């Protein structure tokens, strides 16, 4: 039983983050406001930026072929790596979700519902605390974390782009990814908090019924 609970504790925070990543990373409307905020439209033609972004998102989701005329060979190579990373993240989300559901169903079968709900409550609290700790690290050390992520996620240096000749980094500067990371953490905190709140209220309701 401890192994099953450990599996749930390990998979739950990963699922929440990956789910929010998938939902938020392709939020076209949010990017439009970010482009305006970061001055992208002042450097590049808005229509071209939006067309390029729409095509890129469709490419990363496997819906369209990348419009190669927008990019240099180095940028295309990097975007191929990014697409592979996106595919891996989607696969990981599916696998972790399947493992989590199987573990949860096993737990519900072996334990009474009240004990399982209580465990889910504390799992939600754990996730909330974990994301809060991540938020602190991202707030103070985002540049270092962003650099380390690229060094670990990519086996080449195609991600080192020149803003003078390669417009991908002009459209998607590090500041945009910092804002995206903050957004994902905030939504993950909300998800964990909601999970803890719902399970906590359910436990409180059961407690009141037994009085």
From TrEMBL:
Signal peptide: none annotated. It comes from Candidatus Buchananbacteria bacterium RIFCSPLOWO2_01_FULL_45_31. The keyword Transmembrane applies. InterPro entries: Lit. The chain crosses the membrane at residues 7-25, 88-108, 120-142, 184-204. It comes from the Bacteria. Keywords: Membrane, Transmembrane, Transmembrane helix. This is TIGR01906 family membrane protein.
């Amino acid at each position: 039983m401890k192994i099953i609970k450990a599996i749930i504790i390990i998979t739950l925070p990963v699922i929440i983050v990956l789910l929010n990543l998938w939902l938020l990373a392709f939020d076209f409307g949010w990017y439009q406001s970010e482009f305006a905020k970061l001055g992208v439209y002042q450097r590049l033609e808005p229509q071209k930026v939006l067309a390029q972004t729409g095509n890129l998102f469709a490419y990363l989701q496997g819906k369209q072929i990348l419009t190669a005329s927008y990019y240099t060979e180095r940028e295309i190579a990097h975007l191929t790596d990014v697409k592979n990373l996106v595919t891996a993240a989607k696969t990981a989300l599916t696998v972790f979700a399947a493992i989590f559901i199987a573990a949860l169903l096993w737990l519900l079968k072996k334990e009474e519902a009240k004990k399982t709900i209580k465990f889910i409550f504390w799992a939600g609290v754990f996730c909330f605390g974990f994301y809060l700790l991540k938020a602190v690290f991202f707030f103070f050390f985002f540049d270092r974390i962003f650099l380390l992520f690229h060094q670990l996620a990519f086996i080449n240096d195609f991600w080192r782009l020149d803003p003078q000749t390669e417009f991908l980094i002009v459209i998607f500067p590090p500041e945009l990814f910092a804002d995206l990371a903050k957004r994902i953490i905030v939504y993950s905190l909300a998800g964990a908090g909601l999970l803890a709140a719902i399970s906590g209220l359910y436990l409180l309701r059961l407690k009141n019924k037994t009085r």
